[in-house]
Write a structure and sequence with these properties.
By secondary structure, the protein is an alpha+beta fold. Helices cover 29% and strands 16% of the residues.
Length: 189
């Protein structure tokens, strides 16, 4: 829960538990929103959702998100708006992060920025002339699925050697986790 300046008033975290299905995920989102509202002592005035993968901000629905099998077509925007009677927005998590950085972070008052996130995948959000850039057909630009090495490892997008398959976090046998195991982690002194 944040205020209008972006100050965090209350925070909860929970694993997604995607295999338990969308209905379970939605119920947990509702519970967490109610709890953070109560903890912060404020009413919910709007809800923003940042989600991995392909999402459709215009309709509020999930696309074919490989980390959320079976959630495709479900619409958390409609479901949460109905539950809380407030405006709800859905963005790809990297795009949402870029918007947050542009609104309250190091990108505040900047007309252009690129936000890159590295975790179980690689994502990026782009702000141009103060606006979120959407790619072809208003889609998220998916900067991590540019082929770097055509002979590289398979990627979840169906190609080989994408930036994500070469450099991502723990999800792939290649990438940062494997490199850390192979070269050894730096020792703390």
């Amino acid at each position: 829960m944040v205020d209008d300046t972006g100050k965090v008033l209350s925070k909860l975290e929970s694993p997604t538990d995607a295999p338990s299905g969308y209905a379970n995920g939605l119920a947990r989102m509702i519970d967490m929103l109610r709890r953070t509202s109560q903890d912060a002592g404020v009413e919910i005035s709007g809800i923003g959702i940042g989600s991995t993968g392909v999402v459709y901000p215009g309709s509020g629905a999930f696309g074919d998100v490989d980390l959320l099998p079976g959630w495709q077509g479900n619409n958390p925007v409609q479901d949460l708006a109905r539950e809380f009677k407030v405006a709800v927005a859905l963005e790809n998590d990297a795009d949402a992060s870029a918007l947050g950085e542009a609104g309250w972070g190091a990108g505040k008052l900047k007309s252009r920025l690129i936000y890159v996130t590295v975790g179980t995948g690689i994502g990026g959000g782009i702000i141009l002339d103060g606006q979120l850039y959407r790619g072809v057909d208003m889609a998220h630009p998916e900067i991590s699925h540019h082929v770097i090495d055509p002979s590289g490892p398979d990627c979840s997008c169906g190609y080989r050697g994408c930036w994500e398959s070469l450099a991502t976090g723990p999800r792939w046998p290649y990438g940062l986790a494997r490199m850390r195991r192979e070269i050894g982690a730096p020792r703390k002194t």
